[in-house]
Write a structure and sequence with these properties.
globular, homodimer, alpha+beta, Arc Repressor Mutant, subunit A, Dna Ligase, domain 1, 2 domains, 5 strands, 3-stranded mixed sheet, DNA-binding, 40% helix
DNA sequence: TCCCTTATTGCAACTTATTTGCAATAATTA
DNA sequence: TAATTATTGCAAATAAGTTGCAATAAGGGA
């Protein structure tokens, strides 16, 4: 598994201080963060960081699958570092802390059935769980 | 199953032209619509409809579970009329057409397993499928 | 049916979120 | 180290959603 720096280089992108700051913030976060939050934390690491750059960096990172967006009922668009092999997220409604879990298999049967019933061809799925984490219980 | 008018009345809310327009638009839509779209269609039914009212109406309808929000990769917050008993949506990435499907059972096992692994208490889930509908294939 | 109460509406202004153009800056490659 | 060009940050524009408030209209009761 390549490092994020390698992923960036291979895509012909540069490794810069702002990007490093965003990545560090996300790596240290134990919950999903919105751009504003990433900016607020990131500026401590790179004093001239701008919010615009945070947006652009997140867009790039998402294209490269380095981060993923998580959807929440109210605020869409929290960002989370992508963990290898994991595709689903469980977000705590109390503190926003997030854990990832595998769980492809359970969906395969479901998706096959839905495809048959509806005639749709299913290309992707969005599965997120919302709950209360051990800390918040 | 009560009509939406009954649901509104029982909640102490009034049945107004703007609300009727929003409901009609959603009932006739075969895909999820964003507030702007609902406004554009709704103004044909009620000439003085305003976008502000659309937002407020959608908020109310969502509280009363008359409509549901659907999330999409890019644009969050499309709205869809709630069908009874159905909790999941399959959205066509071509035209936005949406169908609903049941599918609780498959998730029960998955959720139980995730709860055990993570220590989280799962309260809700967001499952949406994205695919290509028969029309668009 | 008309009146009265009060929920609802629409306007205008505001806040928040996100995007874009562009000149200055800094990362890489030779 | 110099040259090339991706990237940055500013400022301004755009988009999305919210709020205060006076005017309006729904619906219960006389």
């Amino acid at each position: 598994m390549p490092t994020w720096e390698e992923t960036l280089s291979q895509a012909g992108c540069r490794i810069t201080e702002p990007r490093r700051a965003v990545m560090t913030v996300l790596a240290q976060a134990e919950r999903s963060l919105v751009p504003q939050e990433i900016f607020a934390l990131g500026i401590k690491l790179h004093a001239t960081l701008s919010l615009v750059t945070v947006y652009r960096t997140l867009e790039l990172f998402e294209e490269l699958s380095l981060v993923r967006r998580v959807h929440q009922d109210d605020k869409c668009h929290g960002y989370l570092l992508t963990a290898a092999g994991h595709r689903h997220v469980l977000v705590c409604e109390g503190c926003g802390r997030a854990v990832e879990f595998p769980g492809q298999d359970d969906l395969v049967a479901l998706i096959a059935r839905v495809e048959e019933c509806t005639g749709y061809q299913v290309e992707a799925h969005l599965l997120q769980l919302v709950g209360v984490c051990p800390h918040c219980q």
